[in-house]
Specification:
Strand order of the largest sheet: 2-1-5-4
CATH superfamily of the largest domain: Ribonuclease T2-like
Helix content: 40-55%
Shape: globular
Oligomer: single chain
CATH architecture of the largest domain: Alpha-Beta Complex
Order of helices and strands: HEHHEHHHHEHEEHE
Length: about 230
């Protein structure tokens, strides 16, 4: 019995060593690409429904500067949350620490699409540094990506609150964007509201399928769409 116990312990120890070695090998294989600037497969353009964001901020009592700029100035509908480099599975982030300082002039130039300075700085630090290009290149690509996507007319000047299904939001975007398919777009929600639309794009900013992003889409039956402020 003692011999069996010793042998069993030896086998378990050997198995533990093998598992640890495999984990280290897998980690090293991942590290060769993980968070390496420029090493990614495609982009996600994230468009946030600003009225939902402002309602959430109000409910939380969040009155910071970014909220005041986005929710207290001119009314916004969809705004750019970011342009995110992606792997087929997972995504890189914070690829340079510390990140190169973002020129304030670049930040100011993006406020028409991303109406919050804090958001712009964060997107550069977290996502822009993973593209392998300069800050100017990154934000120019954001502008190009946003220009490549048409927002459906019903969402441009939404004067009244309404409810929709996630499928209706997808269909509205697909209808006005030739080449966009249901496998390249995901509708995101909180417990009750439409919060975001995410569109997958190749490195040259063409629509492309993205299974993992699609799997994260909202599964609720109906979503509230708050009106554009002032409506």
């Amino acid at each position: 019995m003692r011999h069996f116990t010793v042998r069993r312990r030896s086998l378990l120890a050997a198995l533990a060593v093998c598992i640890a070695a495999f984990a280290v090998t897998a980690a090293r294989a991942q590290d060769r690409r993980q968070n390496a600037p420029g090493e990614f497969d495609f982009y996600v353009l994230a468009l946030s429904w600003s009225p939902s964001y402002c309602e959430q901020a109000s409910e939380r009592g969040n009155t910071g500067r970014s909220q005041q700029i986005q929710c207290g100035g001119r009314p916004f509908s969809f705004v750019v949350h970011g342009l995110w480099p992606q792997y087929e599975r997972g995504f890189p982030e914070y690829c340079q620490r510390p990140s190169p300082r973002l020129d304030r002039r670049i930040m100011n130039a993006m406020l028409d699409l991303m109406p919050a300075p804090g958001l712009i700085y964060n997107e550069w630090d977290k996502h822009g540094t993973c593209t392998g290009g300069s800050a100017r290149d990154y934000f120019e690509n954001i502008r190009k990506a946003r220009a490549a996507v048409r927002v459906p007319p019903d969402f441009i000047d939404a004067k009244e609150a309404r409810t929709v299904t996630p499928a209706e939001v997808e269909e509205a975007f697909i209808k006005v964007n030739p080449g966009l398919s249901s496998s390249a777009i995901a509708v995101i929600c909180d417990r009750t509201r439409l919060t975001e639309v995410r569109i997958c794009m190749s490195k040259d900013l063409q629509f492309r399928a993205c299974e993992e992003i699609d799997r994260r889409a909202c599964r609720r039956d109906r979503l509230a769409v708050p009106p554009v402020r002032g409506g």
